[in-house]
Amino acid sequence: MYQVNTMAIKSYPIEWNKIFGNNNKLIVEVGFGGGEFLVNLAKENNNYNYVGIETSLTSCHKIKKKIFQDNLNNVQIILEDAKFALREFFSDNSINKVIVNFPCPWPKSKHAKNRLFDEKFIDTLSSVLEVDGELILTTDIFWYASAVKEKFLNNRCFEVKNISEINQLPFKTRYEKKWENEGRKKYLLIAQKRCKKSIKRLLEGDFELPHEKIKKVNFDKLQSLAGFKKSNKNKTIVIKDTYTKLDGSEYLVKVFSEDEGYIQSYFINVIKMKEGWLVKLDDIAKAYRTPAVKEAVNTIAKELEN
Ligand SMILES: C[S@@+](CC[C@H](N)C(=O)[O-])C[C@H]1O[C@@H](n2cnc3c(N)ncnc32)[C@H](O)[C@@H]1O
After folding, report:
1. What is the mean pLDDT of residues 69-93?
2. In total, how many domains does the chain have?
3. Binding positions for S-adenosyl-L-methionine (predicted)?
């Protein structure tokens, strides 16, 4: 995570009141792009806390500058896929509003899997929003708003208001200006949460570094680990390569793993100890300790000991 004061994070979901140092209500913007909407909203309402989630590092750098220049202490930024971040970093019933302005509609059916609003994301919203909390979507594409509305109705946890045409947002976004220049209409969809729901999260809330102790290492297996693949319903593990320290006391295994569509890449260490070997997630690995990461450590340990 680029972002929040990580030293203050002791477990997941994050205790945002501790990060902000108050109990103000939480508003999240997903895909803030240029950051103008989030920054202006935060400037005008300092009795709310704001979290922006973006996958673009450039956008995160840009907004960080604005936050610094305006000396805002009620905004935090997360560089992450919102489908993962919203579910893993926010508790049940903790967010007052989630705002999504002009998301990419991914119109081609072969790209539909990239769309933000899928059943799982809406399920996440049904958990993390407060009861009566709102999802607010603006878009220039009517069919997209209709498709999202349908998904909220199918979820049964939301009261969905009619899609309405709007003139402009309180603070213009980059994409709003772009579509305005092309003369496009703008639509607003509001879904209000009406139930209480809890969802299963990948991160277990502990920070323990996944590790296994083994008595011996099968070096032939170690040399041929690259290309190893293991897959089951929710998890996939792929070993890309192995690297050796010259004196043979330590090995690095490069791993890609996937939990329910969330992909991470990291190293696992195999280190010679006084007695036996230690297999563990590399200290500097930024990987979240998801089930697939824990299974990768466990699998490598088992493979090498045989
Ligand atoms: C079309 S732009 C809109 C930007 C801004 N809201 C505006 O109105 O100008 C969509 C933004 O969403 C971000 N994005 C796309 N998928 C995302 C995801 N899964 N999680 C977080 N951000 C995402 C993109 O990086 C991009 O900045």
Report:
1. 96
2. 2
3. 29, 54, 81
